Amino acid sequence: MSADPAVMQHLRPLPTRESSDAWVDFQIEHQSTHGFCMWAVELSPSGTFVGAVGLLVVNFPAHFTPTVEVGWRLARACWGQGLATEAGRKALEFGFRELGLPEIVAHASDHNTRSLRVMSRLGMSHYPADDFDHPRVKESDPLRRQALYRLKRNDWPGTAEPPRR
User: Fold this and answer.
1) Where does the chain show beta strands of DSSP type E?
2) Are 93 and 101 in contact (CB under 8 A)?
3) Could you tell me the residue ranges of all domains in the chain?
4) How far apart are CA 165 and CA 162, in angstroms?
5) Tag placement on the chain: N or C end, fewer CB within 10 Å?
6) Domain spanning 5-160 has what CATH number?
7) Hey, CA dihedral for 132, 137, 138, 140, is it positive or negative?
8) Cα-flanking dihedrals φ and ψ of residue 36, to 5°?
9) CA-based radius of gyration for the chain
10) Crossing angle of the two packed helices 83-93 and 113-121, in degrees rounded to 10
């Protein structure tokens, strides 16, 4: 999946098997440290791996950190089926109900219209003044400019139920 140029078009590349394995190792360590990460997504009932969706601590300096972000990466064959939105909702539910997070953000290249639509469908709000230049992306890279979306627990549709902490 991470070798598919269409999947990685709006993401920082993982050009080798080693870099892809390092991304998986990072997820395992993040889960161990924080109790959450980008989780593997499988189709039911086949169990076919189709991508990763979940929560991560934002680990770069920005005007909105420290915070937790929701994100997704799905195989191209699964695009347009609502899987990112469905799994993203589950990640938000976990973050708000289980972790008691006050806010969850999402960000993507301002050219990544698919992900920006998912953020909107998740009920996240976009304020252009929040957009930022990603500090880990070169100035000349079209992925540098990022749109930031936010969702506060109090604005999440599931707020009728208190956190389960």
Assistant:
1) 38-42, 49-57, 68-74, 103-109, 125-126, 132-133, 145-152
2) no
3) 5-160
4) 9
5) C
6) 3.40.630.30
7) negative
8) -160, 160
9) 15
10) 50
